[in-house]
Structure formats: C-alpha cells, structure tokens
TrEMBL record:
The keyword Cell membrane applies. Its main location: membrane. Residues 794-817 are annotated as: Disordered. PANTHER family: DNA INTERNALIZATION/COMPETENCE PROTEIN COMEC/REC2 (PTHR30619), RECOMBINATION PROTEIN 2 (PTHR30619:SF1). It is a multi-pass membrane protein. This is ComEC family competence protein. The chain crosses the membrane at residues 92-111, 117-134, 336-365, 377-397, 487-513, 525-545, 552-571, 583-605.
C-alpha cells in the first residue's frame, strides 16, 4: 500500500508539473469560466458579481490597442518591407507601368519649351543602361525602371507631336476653298457642320494651307455626301486657345485632332464632283463608313422624331450634334451626360447583350453546350460586335479607349483568364498612352480610368473580403421574395457603383468643368435601368435593321428616351448646385496619388491613401479666384461684382465663354454695360472715382468703366487714342487695339493690349487687396516659347501689332472727256 501510495503521489506530482508547464504554453481563456468561485472561499458569487462577457467588438478594440502599443519604428519598417514584398509578388510593379508612362506624358505636355529628340533619346538610353546595370540591387533597379518608364512617356509624347504635325492657320482670312468632305453633321441650330480635307485655295491662294478644316454651312446640296469634292467661299479662323488660364485648350485639341482651322461658308457650298475614282483606298473606306453612319442616322430620325431620334442616333452611330442644348444642359446638371457619349457603358452593354443572347441561344441545345466552350464563342462574337460598334460610331477617342479595355477583357475570357482585373485595366491604359499620349491630360481619359480603376479595385476588395468567410446556404424564398431580393441587390449594386465612380471622378470633374452634380446618384438610379433597356433595344434594332424589322425596337427605344428626358429635366430643375468655382491643382494631384495607392495595393499599405485623401480635401480651396478675366481677342472683360452677378463689357457677349466664366467665378447672372451719350450729364469719365465698389460697366465717350469690390477701377477702351483718359484713376486698362501701347507710363496702372492677348492668350488679373499702392498682377493662358500647338499665334495680324485688314478702295472712275 505504501508503495502504491508513493507511486500515486509521484504520479500526481508529475501531472501537476505537466499542468503547470502547460499554463505557459496554452493561451489564456478569453472569458472567465461559467461557474466562477471566489478565491480562498469556495463560495460562488451572486449573478450580479459575475464579470460581464466581453463583446467581440470590445475584444477587437483591446487587441488593436495592444498592437498600437507595440508599434515601434523597427517593427513598422519591417512590416512595411514585408507588405511591400508581398505587393511585388502579387504584381503591383506591372500595375504601376501605366502610371509611370502617364507621369512622363504629363511631364512632356507640361514643359515650358519643346524638347529636342536627341535629348529625350539620351535620357531614355541612360536610364535604360542604369536599369540594366542595377539588376543585382532590386530596390535600385525598381527606381531606375520607374525612371525609364517616365522617360518613355516623355518620348511617346514627343513622337506623337511630331507624327501629328498639324498645320494650323495663323490668321483670319477669307478664301475660295476646294476640298473633299470627310463628314457631315446636322446641328441643332439647323446648320450643317462639314469636316473637309483641303485640296486647293484661291482668291487669295494661301501659301500655308491647313490640311483639314471644319466649316459650317446654312444649306448644302442634296447630293453632297462624304467623299464629295466641293467648293465655296469661306471665312477661315485660327484655332482658339483657352477661354481663361488653366482651362481647356481648344488649340491643343485641334492640333491632335488634325483640324488646322475652323469657320463658315459665306454662301452655300457647291459640289464639284461626287466621284471617288481618284480617292485613295483609305479615303474611300472612310467615306463609305461615314455615308453608312449618316444613312443609319437619317433612318433613325425618320422612325423616331424629335430629340428622342437625335439621342437614338447618338447612341447607335455616335452622331450627337443635333441634340437640343437644353437637353444636353439638363443631363450635365444631373450627371448623366456620360450616357450620350459612346464610352465604356455603351460598349459594356453591347458586349453584355450579345453574350447574354448567344449564351441563352446555346442553352437551348444542351448537348452542344456541354461539349463546346460556348462562353468563348459568345465572347468572340461580343468582341466582333464591339469592333463593329466602334467603327460605325465614328472611332472617337472615348470609344477607342473603351474598346481597348473591353477587348482585353474579352480576350482574357478566350484564354481562360479573369476578365475584370486591374492587370487588364493596366494593359488597356498602356495601349492608350502609347498610341495617344495627349489623351492623358484630357478629362475623358482621367475620369474614365479613375472611375474604372475605383470600381475594379472596390469589386476586388469586396470579393477578397467575402472569399474568407463561410456562408450558410440561402434560405428558400417564394417567387415574390426572390424577385424583391434581386431587385434590392440590383438597386444597391447600382447605387454603390454610382457612389464609387462619382467619388473617384468628383474632383476631376470640378477641376475641368467647375461644376458638380449633387443629385447624380438619384439621377443614375432612376435612369440607368431605362438606359439598360434602351441599349438592349438599340442592339436589337441594329440586328433587325438589315431585314427592315427594326421599327418596333426603335419605337420602344424612343419611348424609353422620352422617359429619360423627362426624368433628367425634372431632376435638373431641382438640382441645388451647379457651378462651384475653381479648386487647386494640388488637390487633384493628391487625390490622384490616393487613387493609385488605393486601387493598386492589396495589403494594408492601401491605408497610405488616407493621408493623401485628407490632404486633398484640405487643399481644395488653396487657390485664388481671378478678380478680372479678359478674352484672348480683347473683346470681352468680366469681373464678379457680388451677389452672384458677373459684370461684362459687351451687351452681347460670347455665350460659351460667359458660361465658363460664370462657373469659374461662381456667378449666376450677367450684368451688361449701360451706355450714356456724351454730354447728357448722367455719367462722365470724371465720375469714375465716385462709383461704388461692385459697380458694373458704364460706357461713355469711347471708354467703359467699372469698379471692383476691392475698389480697383477697370477701364475698357476700343481705340488706343482713348486710353490716356483713364490713366489718372484706373488700376487696369484693357485696350482692344492691336496698335495700342502703354500710354500711362505708370507702374501702378496695368495696361493690357490686344497685341499682348493675341500673343499670350486670355488673361486673369489679380488685385492686391491688402495694399493700394501695389500694382495688379496678370497671368496669361499661353506661355512662350510656343509649343507646336500654339506656334501659329505669332502669325496673326494682331500679334504683329497690325490693325484689322481693310480692302483697298477702288479708285473712282474718271468721267470721259
């Protein structure tokens, strides 16, 4: 018994030792045992004395606090290195390739002077050699590869500029023009806009002829089509620059579109020859496609009349010049104008419709579907369909970009790869940047890729979040419950899509257009289901059109467009905000960095985007609104005078320009000048100092005067001989005379002449509100030396300081003796 007892004691001691050692190896329980005992008493406490169970949320907070308490610089550095290594393993380096190319392209178009080819090639070769030599040092190698890609982006911009080489008209002139019609567009005003390849000019014969121009005509012959050789006397105008500094540059856009001038026919053009025998094959093909587009558009307008027919033609063949301005404005205010422009939405709906119809048709043959890759067949058919849609829609830039993106995704399906990934988006971005680097600085590229990247990144993040969770099988529901759930899911998905895309593009829209659509979410939720049905009917009508059976689809499409127009007009009338003014360039740059980080990173490093977002929001107002804006032709001066009003110097200002200025200066109404005759005693030039701050323009004796809210006086004169009249009191004098000069010779008076504006573009003037003895400062839209898209400015009569051209008077006939 004693031995047995000692054995038992030893066994117990051994078990106790094991238990004590196990306490340090086993994790502590997350909560107290279910029946706690007061230590030393053996008594169970009352229920009120039992510690409350810890909630999961509280546990997460405690763990987060512990982790934050353990954070140190070495640990943080190690964690960042580990996460960065994981990001590289997941392929983030490839996703950043288009980002580096875009940085290089933006850098090229932002340069103050045109770089030389040898210098850019030398930079590319040098960075390439450095990247090749540094392969043994991974971090250094990545840095040099990024520099190489940026240099390639610079070189791509230079190559495109050299390749395009558009000849731009330098000065306004009237001439007899002969050329071949490239396209015809019926405008909402009733005029016809013609794009013409110029073949000859006469009376006078131009020595420097633009290759392609865009002219409008009141009426054209019925037999005129794309490819027709026409002639007519036309007034040609050089491409205009930005309507204000840092705004959209129309001269830049014209250069890369190949348009060297614009204007209008002084009479009706005539057809010289409708034969295309002497045309090259490429021109014949282009003319044939354009005539087919016009024929389809006319057929659609004949079936669906009014604005609905114009929108239907825009959705199917991309002809949108005839849409009424009030409908365009309503869709812009509600944030649904992207529906009109053929882009990713339309391409995706066409591809989805074709794939859905074909897969539904294949499902009717189960044996065939089980043995064949019908999904690939449908994807191939969808690829052919969107290629045809791209061609018939006019091959516009937005459609090209959308086609590349969808083509990459459909080809991925053909090769059994995931279709919707950031990698495929990167491939499409690389293709666009290499082919058309100038698109990177435009709103279409920036907003399209920002929205798509945000949606793909959000979708991937949500998919990763759901992949790690086990879900019970869905409960059985009745048919109404099933339909209600699907409807709610579709509505929620549409709402989240609109919120994500809208948030990603909001600052870009404000930067480029100075407008915001606060009710865009409501508008998109209300209209997108209609648009989906409309695009399905558009595809159906296109398939049935060759058989003459498309009228039911077009009729229903028109009814859907009627509902869309009514909804957009109703929401537009109730939209509280439109123009929001200017924002800083730094905020756009910071939000771009945040978007790149958030969409390319897959680890916790995406949290690095948060500081950039906060900094972007904080720097939004970090810009100064101009006190005065002046047009590049010196014909219009405008300034805000408070109360949401914009004072202008002309009774009938340019509507497009004033609309842009109103949004930039946060004004809602314009105040035209009031003119007084000389000597009537109501207003004299000497009364300028007595004007109250915020006084609009008053015109008398050849001078228009206004007073800014800061107290600065602005004078506008048509003749340089009248500029001296305002030297004694004006802070700013604008002289609408190319032969004008600074007649004041006073450093406190800023004088801007028509010649300066012709050479440097539109101007923004800023007054110093802190000091009355500090002269005003001016910022011009165009810098010198000129880049290729601005080089034509120095050839105008105004830029050379010459007065407007006047035809010499014919000598009077001498009567016969």
């Amino acid at each position: 018994m004693a031995g047995r007892g000692r054995g038992l004691d030893q066994g117990e001691d051994a078990n106790v030792g094991v238990s004590e050692r196990s306490l340090f190896a086993m994790p502590l329980p997350a909560s107290p045992p279910p029946s706690p005992v007061i230590p030393g008493t053996g008594i169970q406490p009352l229920q009120a004395d039992v510690p409350a169970p810890v909630s999961p949320a509280h546990g997460r907070i405690v763990r987060a606090r512990r982790r934050l308490g353990q954070v140190s610089l070495p640990r943080l550095r190690h964690s960042v290195a580990k996460a960065a290594e994981l990001e590289l393993d997941r392929g983030i380096a490839f996703l950043l390739v288009p980002v580096c190319l875009a940085i290089g392209a933006i850098g090229y178009f932002s340069l103050a002077a045109e770089p030389d080819f040898p210098k850019l090639i030398a930079v590319v070769v040098l960075t390439g050699i450095c990247a090749l030599v540094s392969r043994s040092w991974p971090k250094t190698h990545l840095c040099f590869m990024a520099a190489l890609l940026c240099a390639l982006g610079l070189l791509a911009g230079k190559v495109e500029t050299w390749r395009v080489g558009t000849q731009m008209l330098g000065s306004e002139i009237s001439t007899q023009l002969t050329g071949r019609v490239v396209s015809l567009e019926q405008m909402e005003t009733g005029r016809i806009r013609l794009t013409i390849d110029v073949t000859a000019t006469a009376r006078p014969k131009l020595r420097y002829v633009p290759e392609r121009v865009r002219l409008s005509a009141r009426k054209i012959p019925s037999e005129m089509t794309a490819g027709s050789l026409i002639t007519g006397y036309a007034k040609l105008l050089p491409p205009t620059g930005p309507v204000r500094p840092e705004s959209y540059d129309f001269s830049f856009d014209s250069y890369f579109a190949g348009i060297g001038g614009s204007g209008f026919f002084l009479g009706n053009p005539k057809v010289v020859s409708a034969s295309d025998d002497d045309m090259p094959i490429s021109a014949r093909l282009s003319s044939g496609i354009e005539n087919s587009r016009e024929a389809i558009a006319d057929h659609i307008r004949g079936t669906v009349s009014g604005a609905e027919g114009e929108i239907a033609a825009a959705l199917i063949v991309g002809v949108r010049a005839g849409i009424p301005d009030e409908i365009n404005e309503a869709m812009r205010r509600t944030g649904i104008y992207h529906i009109i422009s053929i882009s990713g939405l339309h391409m995706a709906l066409v591809a989805g419709t074709i794939m859905g119809l074909l897969r539904g048709a294949f499902a009717l043959f189960p044996d065939f579907s089980a043995r064949r890759p019908v999904k690939k067949y449908a994807a191939a058919a969808a690829l052919v369909s969107i290629a045809a849609y791209l061609i018939i829609s006019g091959v516009v830039v937005a459609a090209e970009r959308s086609f590349i993106m969808l083509a990459v995704m459909l080809i991925a399906v053909l090769f059994d790869r995931a279709a919707l990934t950031m990698r495929n988006l990167a491939i499409s971005a690389i293709a666009v940047i290499v082919v058309s680097p100038h698109e990177v600085v435009g709103p279409s590229f920036q907003m399209s890729f920002a929205a798509t990247a945000a949606l793909v990144g959000a979708y991937a993040g949500w998919a990763d979040h759901r992949a790690g969770k086990s879900r019970p099988p869905p409960p059985k529901r009745s048919l109404p419950g099933f339909l209600a759930r699907k409807f709610l899911l579709a509505t929620g998905g549409l709402a989240m899509t609109s919120i994500i895309a809208g948030s990603a593009t909001a600052l870009f829209a404000i930067w480029h257009f100075q407008r915001v659509s606060p009710l865009s979410l409501v508008a998109n939720l209300a209209i997108m289901p209609i648009v989906s049905v409309v695009m399905f009917l558009a595809v159906a009508s296109a398939l049935l059109m060759p058989f003459g059976l498309d009228w039911p689809a077009l009729y229903l499409m028109g009814k859907g467009l009627t509902a869309m127009i009514a909804i957009s007009a109703w929401i537009s009338d109730r939209s509280p905000v439109d123009g929001v003014g200017l924002i800083s360039q730094q905020s756009v740059l910071l939000v771009t960095i945040a978007l790149v980080i958030a969409t390319t990173a897959t680890t916790w490093l995406r949290l690095a985007a948060v500081p950039f977002v906060l900094a972007s929001v904080l720097t939004i107002p970090d810009t100064r609104t101009p006190d005065v804006l002046i047009s590049e032709d010196a014909r219009l001066v405008a300034m805000p005078i408070g109360g949401g009003e914009l004072a202008v110097s002309r009774a009938r200002p340019n509507e497009f320009m004033v609309d842009n200025w109103k949004r930039a200066l946060r004004s809602e109404a314009i105040v035209v000048p009031e003119t007084f005759t000389r000597g009537d005693g109501q207003f004299e030039i000497a009364d300028a100092t007595e004007l109250p701050p915020g006084a609009p323009f008053y015109c008398t004796d050849g001078v228009c005067l206004a007073k800014h809210t800061s107290g600065a006086i602005i004078a506008y004169v048509e003749d340089r001989k009248d500029s001296w009249k305002a030297c004694g009191f004006a802070d700013l004098i604008v002289v609408n005379d190319a032969t004008g000069y600074d007649a004041c010779h006073n450093p406190l008076v800023l004088v801007i002449t028509k010649r300066q504006l012709a050479r440097k573009g539109s101007a923004a003037v800023f007054f110093n509100r802190q000091s009355a003895i500090t002269p005003a400062t001016v910022s011009f839209a165009v810098d010198s030396p000129y880049r290729p898209w601005h080089a034509q400015r120095k050839f105008s009569r105004e830029a050379r300081g010459l007065p407007p051209y006047k035809k010499p008077e014919k000598p009077a006939a001498v009567p016969a003796q």
